[in-house]
Amino acid sequence: MSTPLPKIAWIGLGIMGSPMSENLLKAGYSVTGYTLEQDKLDRLAAAGGTAAGSIAEAVEDADVVVTMVPASPQVEAIAYGPDGILENARQGALLIDMSSITPQTSVDLAKNAAAKGVRVLDAPVSGGEAGAIEAVLSIMVGGEQADFDTAKPILEALGKTIVLCGPHGSGQTVKAANQLIVAVNIQACAEAVVFLEKSGVDLQAALDVLGGGLAGSTVLTRKKDNFLNRDFKPGFRIDLHHKDMGIVTDAARNVGAALPVGAVVAQLVASLRAQGDGGLDHSALLRSVERLSGSQV
Predict the structure, then answer these.
(1) Where does the 6-phosphogluconate dehydrogenase NADP-binding domain lie (predicted)?
(2) pLDDT of residue 1
(3) Would you state the pLDDT for residue 235?
(4) What pLDDT was estimated at residue 297?
(5) Rg, the chain, Cα only
(6) DSSP states of the chain as a string?
(7) Distance in angstroms (rounded) separating the CA atoms of residues 72 and 286
């Protein structure tokens, strides 16, 4: 007789969390969700999930709790306190935090959870909204091998590349490196776009041929239409990338790694946010280059 699939509680149904939880429903899991926006709870219910009225209600019967919230303060808010996950999850439950937070927050969470009999993995993702919808995310995991083995079938319903990177916090460290590479890559693409346009070259043709050579990248493939159409509807907001650049610059300073180009791009992300573009997609780094190049934005 096949063992029943674990019952899942999902906390945080935003741009990433909603399609990810729906992919678990499609894979046959029962999902009880909680988030702050009623329309997101309605969406989960319409997809076949169960909407809970609180974190405690969502997690009380769950074998696995998955969290997907914006940053460290939100993870701490949902994990700790009388109404939080650790006080209300059952002994032996597995908490998979898929948020992108500081490595230290993940280490602390795992330690505090262990005292309550709750196992933890940090499992941040890369691939953005499209990757979440298509279930092709890259998932970088920190924690114990046995817990990773338990979580793997669930993660396989959400992503394509799933790797245990080391102990607690390792997933977050790799995610920070991912965000460094993505930001620098977008910045380079944005500078190329402005250079090409000011030179009078057909941008579509140029990006097509660049994409086929060594300059090609997942970033260029995924963001090409954003650049061509100046479409900055958020898949991943500048506000969140600003948060992530803070994580990577802080973590790098702690271990003594120099990030000279990363530091410059972190400042460009910060300036874009200061100019009111924080709610736009991170491909809007193009707007910063346009401003610096004298274009009206």
Answers:
(1) 7-166
(2) 58
(3) 87
(4) 86
(5) 20
(6) -PPPPPPEEEE--STTHHHHHHHHHHTT--EEEE-S-HHHHHHHHHTT-EE-SSHHHHHTT-SEEEE--SSHHHHHHHHSSTTSHHHHSPTT-EEEE-S---HHHHHHHHHHHHTTT-EEEE--EESHHHHHHHT-EEEEEES-HHHHHHHHHHHHTTEEEEEEEESTTHHHHHHHHHHHHHHHHHHHHHHHHHHHHHTT--HHHHHHHHHTSTT--HHHHHHHHHHHHT----SSBHHHHHHHHHHHHHHHHHHT---HHHHHHHHHHHHHIIIIITTSBGGGHHHHHHHHTT---
(7) 28
Give the pLDDT of residue 77.
98
Contact 209, 220 (CB under 8 A): no
Q: Catalytic annotation on 175?
A: yes
Please identify which of the residues 175, 223, 224, 243 carries the catalytic annotation. Answer: 175
Residues of the chain with pLDDT under 70: 1-2
- Predicted pLDDT of residue 131: 95
Structure tokens at 255: 């271990």
The structure's pTM equals 0.94
Which pLDDT score, from 0 to 100, does residue 36 have?
97
User: Of the candidates 209, 24, 1, which has an alpha carbon nearest to the alpha carbon of residue 10?
Assistant: 24
